[in-house]
Amino acid sequence: MKLRKLLLTNNACFEAGKTITPKGIMVHSTGANNPWLKRYVGPDDGLLGKNQYNNHWNQDKPGGRQVCVHAFIGKLADGSIATYQTLPWNHRGWHAGGTANDTHIGFETCEDGLTDASYFSAVYKEAVELCVYLCKLYGFSEKDIICHSEGYKLGIASNHADVMHWFPKHGKSMDTFRADVKKLLIIENKPAEPVKKKYYRVQIGAYSDKANAEAQLTKAKKAGFTDAFIKYD
Ligand SMILES: [Zn+2]
User: Fold this and answer.
1) CA distance 132 to 136
2) Which of 37, 64, 92, 132 registers the highest number of CB atoms within 10 A of its CB?
């Protein structure tokens, strides 16, 4: 994940300044064919590129709407994929059109024409990684992740189709998404394997006479091999 931060401080949602205790994550997609982050995130930080219409969401009410999310995933000016955090994670966002705003961190994935498999898989992977990051930050599991359309079915979000009008076009769903988050969480939560110490053992000789062996042992210990010992076979 390429995570950067540009808080939308001019957005009325930011200015409302309400905080929440995040209980889960809601995945959105923008519903418009425009994969460029600069469409939503601005002003240009040198990587986003310039939004020539100046209609990004770092303004009071973008397009006259009260909307704001915690992050966007899409393309930088150079065409690579990045995540931009646009609200503090515990800020109350305006993304769900329902009570999920009080409980869920919401992020948008920027849609393109919905048919480009390589763009989709890059955005999907970035979204999985963002969710894993947030799961670790807040102790969520993959079960705490829903998309907007699932939120609607649960009665906590407005009637939108995202992301289930897009993911299935590329053989994915929210179930595969959760499974992929779970897989990555297991990998990342695995404690690191203890490093096995390597020993280079030195044998200084074998003696048929016990006294000789003990004499050699004494010598070895005097020479600083304090761990030296006699082994009878
Ligand atoms: Zn949505």
Assistant:
1) 6
2) 37
65 CA from centroid of ligand 1 (Å):
14
- pLDDT digits 0-9 by tens, 126-181: 999 999 999 999 999 999 999 999 999 999 999 999 999 999 999 999 999 999 99
Q: Decide if 203 is inside a domain.
A: no
For residue 157, which phi and psi values (nearest 5 degrees)?
-150, 165
The pairing of beta strand 24-29 with beta strand 104-109: parallel
Whether 211 maps to a domain, the answer reads no
The pocket of ion ligand 1, defined by CB under 5 A, consists of 28, 148, 160, 162
Q: Ligand 1 centre from 97 Cα, in Å? A: 9
Task: Report yes or no on 224 lying in a domain.
Answer: no
In single-letter form, the type of residue at position 93 comes to G
Asked whether residue 205 is domain-assigned, the answer is no
Which range of residues forms the domain containing residue 132? 3-189
Q: How far, in Å, CA of 38 to CA of 222, rounded?
A: 73
Domain count, the chain: 1
End-to-end CA, the chain = 58
CATH number of domain containing 100: 3.40.80.10
